[in-house]
Design a protein that fits this description.
Length: about 220
């Protein structure tokens, strides 16, 4: 054995940093609160920013806004995007979203953001492939569609296309009382957007929609 060989040591696989994993999981699944408690991680929480006035009504709002979002209930969509900062700006411009809170990691990625759109919460973050959080661009599409009611579907459609959306179906009046459209945003997420224009009865809907029947759920006594 030579002198150099006697000094050689094989590198051993390093175990994952448990502290990093725990802190990242905390950011991605953070409770609906605008505070951050990550003392061992260099993380910055930005102040909410928006281009709309504080008194303005969110576009298409159908429920009262909840302020900081701390009392929201039900299912909340959580999007993974390949450029979270750009996505936040896009949703603000197209849907008049209000940003409530943003967690930025020391690597520059957004680990968590909360937006209020039309009185509902939308969460998003940059990609974290190591934890199974990947965007539509990475997996080649998405089977999920986000449904949003707005005041003026035609205006939203045109604005979305002007800002890089891919149009699938232009606004059309539907038998069920909505004027609706569908498009993919520049980050690969699919949207179905509509404005309510009428409140037809089930009989009227069935008369206009060939091949479909309105089925009401069974209600037990």
């Amino acid at each position: 054995m030579t002198a150099f060989e006697s000094l050689r040591h094989d590198d051993q696989p390093a175990a994952p940093d448990r502290r990093f994993a725990d802190d990242l999981r905390t950011r991605l699944t953070a409770a609906l609160t605008p505070t951050v408690d990550l003392p061992e991680r260099s993380t910055t929480m930005s102040s909410p920013s928006t281009t709309r006035s504080e008194s303005a009504e969110p576009a298409g709002a159908t429920t009262e806004a909840t302020g900081d979002g701390s009392q929201l209930a039900g299912i909340t969509p959580y999007l993974s995007v390949h450029d979270a900062a750009a996505a936040i700006d896009w949703y603000r411009n197209i849907f008049d979203a209000t940003e409530l809170v943003r967690y930025v990691g020391d690597d520059g990625r957004i680990g968590h953001c909360q937006l209020l759109i039309g009185g509902s919460m939308l969460m998003l973050a940059d990609e974290y492939p190591d934890y199974g959080s990947v965007s539509p661009r990475t997996v080649g599409g998405t089977p999920v569609k986000l449904n949003l009611n707005v005041d003026d579907v035609d205006a939203v459609w045109q604005t979305a296309l002007d800002h890089g959306a891919t149009g699938h179906r232009p606004p059309e009046d539907q038998a069920y009382g909505e004027r609706s459209c569908s498009f993919a945003d520049p980050f690969g997420h699919e949207w179905m957007v509509q404005t309510t224009i009428a409140h037809p009865t089930h009989e009227q809907i069935e008369a206009e929609m060939e091949g479909f029947s309105v089925v009401e759920p069974d209600v037990e006594d």
